[in-house]
Specification:
Length: 394
């Protein structure tokens, strides 16, 4: 079990705090389109300012590639955060150096400042120690609350911890606790549901839950690869040819694991992947040349639903089909509805599923939704995440 110090374990009054947040939010016409990630950081910010800290926020936004891009400045984030907090949020056009140092020294207790986009600096993604030292220079404490970037060894997630004591924010603390619970103390039966397009990015997570879960349900494009490994041809469906042998090995391993691994028993098959396309629900052996399997079918939704209904804990990562192209969102919607209606404790592993659940209006029915995508997967794989590893142990 990972046990790291958080802001609850340290004195912050009067301290100058560098807080790494994940404000990588979608923008539209210079405004924040979705402020979910900004709101997720508010409890930590509020706790720090209520306790008399001077809070300086740092985040990346988009992929500027180490060069300033006017359209990726942090101003819209600062404006939205000020609205949410109901207090001024000062913005500075620098990331580190004399201008930032002067501004931080002038701050009063309880004030909030946001730095310019971290990735305007080449040293950020390179985890350049000189840039990390410059970034850390005016501060007394580093607080990492950006779980979504914890799997990256960047200057602002790992490097600064060489120069400052580092602790978790409240969001980071919650992520560690909830995701660890799935691995170390799961309620039984534990059902893991893994979807998405590719097996290659999730092979280690599948193997981990094959060892850990009571049931493992596979959907999405990645299930096609397993079905091909199981002997089906699937017409013109997407699958990863280079992963078929690995998928076959996993199917063999499942026979000895004690985990019940289930593949789709029917698929939504179309000839043209576009909104409103006609399709048929077919069993895997019925998919003909020209047909593309792009979602799980109603029999699979019902089968998965029965297992979900009996679960005590559910872990879900990845959609069941091409949910962004209706009507091929029905498999994801069906599984989401089954989880929302179950008695199980449910944990959803970020990424594309968050948008799907928001569109369905079901986020409130899920017990915990991770703010990570790749970070969640790597955590569940058992990898050491750089942004967590550098935090002080309890």
């Amino acid at each position: 079990m990972i046990s790291k110090k958080s802001i609850e374990d340290v004195e912050v009054e009067g301290k100058k705090i560098l807080m790494r947040s994940d404000f990588n939010v979608p923008l539209e016409s210079g405004r924040v389109r979705d402020d979910t990630r900004i709101k997720a950081a508010v409890p930590t910010i509020q706790s720090l300012i209520n306790r008399g800290a001077r809070v300086v926020l740092a985040s990346h936004l988009g992929r500027p590639g180490g060069e300033p891009k006017p359209e990726l400045k942090m101003n819209p984030v600062a404006d939205r955060l000020a609205l949410i907090l109901g207090r001024p949020v000062h913005k500075i056009d620098s990331v580190a150096g004399p201008e930032v140092n002067k501004k931080v020294v002038e701050m009063q207790e309880g004030e909030v400042l946001i730095l310019e986009n971290l990735r305007f600096e080449k040293g950020e993604e390179k985890n350049d120690p000189q840039f990390a030292r410059l970034l850390a220079e005016p501060f007394d404490l580093f607080v990492n609350d950006a779980f979504g970037t914890a799997h990256r060894a960047h200057a602002s997630t790992a490097g600064v911890a060489s120069f400052l004591p580092a602790v978790a924010g409240l969001l980071m603390k919650k992520e560690i606790e909830e995701l660890s619970r799935c691995l170390n103390d799961p309620a039984r039966p534990l059902t893991a549901i893994i979807g998405g397009a590719k097996v290659s990015g999730k092979i280690n997570v599948i193997r981990r839950f094959l060892d850990l879960a009571d049931n493992l349900l596979l959907g999405g494009g990645m299930a096609n690869t397993f079905l091909v490994a199981d002997g089906f041809t699937l017409g013109d469906s997407f699958y990863e040819e280079e992963m078929v042998e690995e998928a076959a090995d996993l199917l063999d391993e499942s026979e000895e694991s004690g985990c019940c691994l289930l593949l789709p028993v029917d698929l939504a098959v179309t000839k043209e992947l576009k909104t409103g396309s006609s399709f048929k629900n077919l069993s895997p052996e019925e998919v003909e040349e020209g047909g593309k399997a792009v979602d799980i079918g109603p029999e699979t939704v019902a089968l998965f639903g029965d297992i979900i209904a009996d679960a005590a804990m559910i872990v879900w990562n990845g959609p069941m089909g091409v949910f962004e192209v209706p009507p091929f969102d029905s498999g994801t919607a069906g599984v989401a509805a089954a989880i929302a209606g179950s008695e199980a404790y449910s944990v959803v592993g970020g990424g594309d599923l968050v948008a799907a659940l928001e569109g369905l209006g079901l986020t409130e029915k899920i017990n915990f939704i991770s703010t990570g995508g790749g970070a969640t997967l790597e955590f569940w794989e058992g990898k050491e995440l750089p942004g967590i590893a550098v935090l002080q142990d309890k």
